[in-house]
Amino acid sequence: MSFTSAHAVSSDGHVLAERRGAIGLITLNRAGALNALSLAMVRDLTQVLLDWRSDTAVAGVVVRGAGREGKPPAFCAGGDIRFFHQAALAGDPRLEDFFTEEYALNHLIHRYPKPFIALMDGICMGGGMGISQGAALRVVTEHSKLAMPETHIGLFPDVGGGWFLARCPGHLGEYLALTGHILGAEDAIAAGLADIRVDAARQDALIDALASLQDPTADGVLAAARHFATPVGAAPLDAHRAEIDACFSRDALATIDAALAGAGGAFALATRQALAKRSPLMMAVTLEQVRRARQMTLAEDLRLERDLVRHCFWLRPGTASETVEGIRALAVDKDHHPRWNPPHIADVTPEMVAPFFASPWPAHVHPLRALD
């Protein structure tokens, strides 16, 4: 078995890379921030994957999150939203670079020619979903908490979220996109957002088994990882799927809300209460995003999301941005009382939503024009 020690890809040490046998192992090493992605981490991940893509000695790649002693695990909690807030108010051009390069990384993972295995132990949200949903094998554990909670901060489910949520069964994608509902292992597999469940305590054994493979093929790498899968039980959301489909298939945000109000019952009430805390405008943008993405390729969706995120920070600049206000309320001032504009679902009009879907760039200079 050939082992090399993990080394930091750059000076901040937040991405560690090592070769174990024929496997490349990446560890997100920013545990104090729940392994949230910075621009430097996005660049490091991209460089490692490009290097290993052309390295014939690397048969597959595994990505995991560093743990915290005595605390619940986190694969990756998303992007560094405090940086987003500061950069938006300061006009920092690195904010533009972050989203362009993150979405290009997401596309690279979806198109990676070697088995890419994501160990989604613990919190896996937002940007963490972006670097795992394109994996050839998406592994969850009993600790997994998957979500796209962006509407909670006045954003939309990006990192390809429109594309992969739109491909969930029925209208589950709209429900997950609007509410940010957190999925455990069983629900994640049922939703098509994870492939297998592995006991958290066996993750190291899984990595060791892959490292021990002799002359592994792509199929052999994936088969060896699947050997560690354990049976899953019933998915809790399955009991509500008919209600989700009935309500979230409606044509607009207001009619979804009305359907939930008319449905009665504890689930519909809890769902409606969750929606009442989100940005009405960005929920309407999100609904349109997911529905457009059903007819799009991944590259088209990522270009659309790059347009949307540009508008989120600059269509209403500075503190007028729903996203800047949402981050302020959740992560900066932490008062959890965002001042949404407009404040109510009934106040959102199509004329407010339409500008988000006008690209700020001609196609030939779009920042993601090279994606195929």
UniProtKB/TrEMBL annotation:
UniProt cross-references to InterPro entries, sorted A to Z: ClpP/crotonase-like_dom_sf, ECH_dom, HIBYL-CoA-H
Record keywords, A-Z: Hydrolase
Single biological process term from Gene Ontology: L-valine catabolic process
Keyword Plastid: no
GO molecular function: 3-hydroxyisobutyryl-CoA hydrolase activity
NCBIfam families from the UniProt entry: PRK05617.1
Protein name: Enoyl-CoA hydratase/isomerase family protein
Organism for this UniProt entry: Ideonella aquatica
UniProt lineage: Bacteria, Pseudomonadati, Pseudomonadota, Betaproteobacteria, Burkholderiales
